[in-house]
Design a protein that fits this description.
With 259 residues, this protein is mainly beta. The protein has two domains: 98 residues, Thrombin, subunit H; 109 residues, Roll (Pdz3 Domain), CATH 2.30.42. It is 15% helix and 39% strand. It has five helices and 18 strands. Strands 7, 8, 11, 12, 13, 14, 15, 16 and 17 form a nine-stranded mixed beta sheet that branches. Strands 1-2-3-6-5-4 form a six-stranded antiparallel β-barrel. Strands 9-10 form a two-stranded antiparallel sheet. It is globular and about 55 Å long.
Length: 259
Amino acid sequence: MGDSDSARIGEDVIAIRNPFGLEQTLTRGVVSGLNRIMPGSPVLTLPLIQTDASINPGNSGGPLMNRCGEVIGINTSILAEAQNIGFAIPINVAKSVIPELVKHGRVIRSWLGIVGKLVKKELMGIIKLPLVDGFLIETVDPGSPAEQAGIHGGDLPLTIAGTEFLLGGDIITEINGQPVGNAEKLLKGIGSLKVGDKVRLTLFHGNETRSVELTLVERPLLPGDLHSTASSTLLPMKGGLMRVPLPIEIFLRTKNTGG
């Protein structure tokens, strides 16, 4: 195990696994970027390591290693319409959940049950709808704490500059009194939340602001998990949902394709 926090752009890396069933394949490249938010969607995702080492279906779950043989990432996805733009989950993120895996046999994630993306109020000039900086809720999972708290999803599909929106839902502007107007603040707001925590959300909808309080529960097995468990590669994510392994399960819409 290496230290992904010490990774530097330009350093040599190799990826190993079984692309297209070709066992023990090794590809070589460099670290192309750090703390990447997945291109193609202006939303928060898990900060990833970007690499130009060739990653293909079958590489997912394999190690991304530095020149000393230390694992600094877990290969996880690619951009289907690009060449040699791949992403790996930083190994320090994996390390943080190992104690839970050893103790419970699974990663315990809090569940709010919403899908959406970060938006800026500048969009008002384009769509002529009341908006604020925050996390736009596009859909709400049935039976989730969000649904039980009366949180609303969107009902107006719209594509702007290639980005799909489902407008009309609530916008989260604060989590426990902390603003969530950008990815860093949103990550900070949800980073310490655990199962059983009470969470106060400040919501904006139709020029009105309200607050709701809910208790987080453990994320259950959802229908979309069954296919991903049976697959040896990442699910195609074009036009779909990307599961984001954050301490609290907020799903984010993305256009990317898995590796």
